[in-house]
Each structure stands twice: as C-alpha cells, then as structure tokens.
C-alpha cells in the first residue's frame, strides 16, 4: 500500500518531467492583421449579418503535441484553431497560416523539436498601429520576451499585413519606410539584429493601392527578410480574406521559405536550456523530495 503510494508519487512526478521536456525549442512570432490572425471559413451570414466560423479544421491544421501556443495569459498550451481567438478577441477568427506552417515544418524536419507559436495579429490594423510605442508593438515584444523566458530559440517572425494601407495613396507610398522601420525596431528591442522575417506580398487589399504596397513588400531590402507572394491565393466572397485551403497553402509556403533559409537542419541544443530552467524550478525540488522519500521508504519496506 505504501509502496503503491510511492510509485504513484513517482509516476506523477514522471509526467511532470515529461511535460518539462515539452517546452518549445523553436519560437515563432505570428503578427500582422486579419489574414495572419485567420479568417479561413469565416462567413458573414446573410441571415443575421453575423460573422461565424464554419469550424472546419483540415488535416494540415490539426493539433499536434509538438505544437504549442502562447495564450493571452502567457502560458504554453496545446495549439488549436482558431489560434488567435484570445488575441484578436473582438473578431470572429477562423483558419490562419500558423497551424499549417508548424505542421509542415514538423513533417519536413521531425527532429526540429517542439514548436511554440506566439500569436500577435489583430484584424484591421494598419502599419501605423504597429509603430514602436503603440499597444500592438508593445504586446508583440512583451509576449515574445515571455515566450523566451524558459528557453528556446526565436527562429522567425511571420508577418502578413498591409491590406489596410492600400486605401490612400500617401499611406501606400509611405508603407515601405514604415515597414522597414518597424522590422528594425522589433529586431533591436528583441536583441536579435538578424531575426529572420518572412512576410507575405498581399493577396488582396481594402483599397486601390494594393500594387504599391506589394512593391514595397517584394522590394524590402533588409538582410534576412524574405517575401513570399500571396498573389493568386483564393479569397472568401469578401475578396479580402484567404479561404481555408488558401491558408493551408500559405502555411506551407511559409514552412518552405523557413526551412530553405536554414544552413542545415536544426538539431536543437535549446531543449537543454528548457530542461535546465526546470532543474531550478520548484517542480524539481518536489521531485528531489519524493525521490528521497521513496529511497527512505524502500529502506523501511
Ligand atoms: C454582412 O452581411 C450583412 C447582411 O447581408 C450586410 O448588411 C453587411 O454589410 C455585411 N457586413 C460586411 C462587413 O460585409
Ligand atoms: C448573431 O446571431 C445570433 C443568432 O441569430 C444573435 O443572437 C446574436 O445577437 C448575433 N450577434 C451579433 C453580434 O449580431
Ligand atoms: C476590442 O474592443 C474594445 C472596445 O472597442 C477595445 O477597447 C479593444 O482595444 C479591442 N481589442 C482588440 C484586441 O481588438
Ligand atoms: C491607421 O488607422 C488610424 C486609425 O484608424 C488612422 O488614424 C491612421 O490615419 C491610419 N494610418 C494609415 C497609415 O493608414
């Protein structure tokens, strides 16, 4: 009976040990506006003028124990669609590129380790909203710093934004300068001067100046900034948002761009950092306590 208790205690600690190994080794920021937050499968019901998500999650977007997301409460949880539900909370969220991206990376490089996604996108935001000092900028930096607290490596920022900057000619003309400033400031504040950034050249826009913004995106001339082209991806009837199949395709394009930019497949050493932080945590102290207890217990039996 006592032995059973000890074994139970040990087993329960064992699951915690396993859980500790599941901290993300590879951290990715997801930022931008609605097409990054995800509107795949969201329809404006003609009956009541409400936006509802159809709830369809294709195989490429299914949860995977090796994909976590940082919740609005700054906790690592199993990642599930819609990824941005608690971040872009004023809107109806659907399928975005984050899950198909992470699943595609794991399929192509299974040894990469656990992926941690940090959703930060908010629908309807223009590039000025993302300027340093504003809420969105601060939230991005704060959430990323929290994500890195227990180890892991910041691998890239996936960025899809600009639809709201296509309405006025002046805003479209200023987009390139504002975007590059934003990228530079994020890198400086995250102390990662060559943080890989993968951005999307717009598939759609709210106004007439889509081509001007696309040119800015395709012509961004900063080291380690890649641009994948969203042109031609299928859109919902609103002609603004990517459909679920288009988001799956985009996620795979992100994954391809990320993996081909790596010099060699990642064989992480960052898991050891995560384990190390566990060793100094109170879970470990508890584990030591139980171990000692078990040892003494076995002596008695
Ligand atoms: C949604 O649909 C309703 C009813 O058809 C329409 O009045 C409304 O303008 C639509 N809203 C948007 C944002 O498209
Ligand atoms: C959406 O539709 C439901 C059901 O018709 C209704 O109860 C709800 O108030 C609507 N919400 C909004 C924001 O219009
Ligand atoms: C949600 O809406 C409220 C009220 O308009 C606003 O104060 C808040 O900033 C919005 N938050 C997001 C994330 O859109
Ligand atoms: C961004 O949106 C804000 C508020 O809606 C507006 O004041 C500003 O002019 C917009 N800026 C751009 C570049 O579109």
From TrEMBL:
Coiled coil: none annotated. Keywords: Hydrolase, Signal. Residues 25-260 form the Sialate O-acetylesterase domain. The keyword Transit peptide does not apply. GO terms for biological process: carboxylic acid metabolic process. Residues 1-20 form the signal peptide. InterPro entries: Carb_Esterase_6, SASA, SGNH_hydro_sf. This is Sialate O-acetylesterase domain-containing protein. One of its GO terms (molecular function) is carboxylic ester hydrolase activity. Pfam families: SASA (PF03629).
């Amino acid at each position: 009976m006592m032995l059973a208790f000890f074994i139970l205690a040990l087993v329960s600690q064992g699951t915690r040990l396993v859980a500790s190994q599941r901290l993300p080794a590879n951290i990715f920021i997801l930022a931008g506006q609605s097409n990054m937050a995800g509107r795949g499968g969201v329809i404006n019901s003609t009956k009541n003028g409400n936006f509802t998500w159809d709830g369809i999650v294709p195989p490429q977007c299914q949860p995977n124990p090796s994909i976590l997301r940082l919740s609005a409460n700054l906790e690592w949880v199993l990642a599930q669609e819609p990824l941005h539900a608690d971040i872009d909370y004023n809107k109806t969220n659907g399928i975005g590129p984050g899950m198909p991206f992470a699943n595609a990376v794991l399929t192509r490089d299974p040894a990469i380790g656990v992926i941690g996604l940090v959703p930060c996108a908010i629908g309807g935001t223009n590039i000025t909203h993302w300027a340093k000092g504003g809420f969105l900028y601060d939230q991005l930096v704060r959430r990323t710093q929290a994500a890195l607290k227990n180890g892991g490596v910041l691998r890239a920022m996936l960025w899809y934004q600009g639809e709201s900057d296509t309405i006025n000619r002046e805003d479209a003309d200023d987009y390139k300068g504002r975007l590059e400033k934003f990228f530079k400031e994020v890198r400086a504040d995250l102390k990662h001067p060559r943080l890989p950034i993968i951005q999307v050249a717009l598939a759609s826009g709210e106004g007439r100046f889509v081509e001007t913004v696309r040119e800015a995106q395709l012509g961004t001339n900063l080291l380690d900034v890649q641009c994948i082209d969203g042109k031609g991806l299928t859109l919902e009837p609103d002609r603004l948002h990517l459909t679920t199949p288009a988001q799956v395709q985009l996620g795979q394009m992100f994954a391809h761009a990320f993996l081909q930019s790596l010099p060699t497949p990642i064989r992480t050493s960052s898991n050891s950092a995560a384990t190390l932080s566990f060793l100094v945590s109170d879970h470990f102290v508890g584990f030591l306590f139980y171990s000692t207890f078990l040892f003494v217990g076995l002596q008695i039996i």
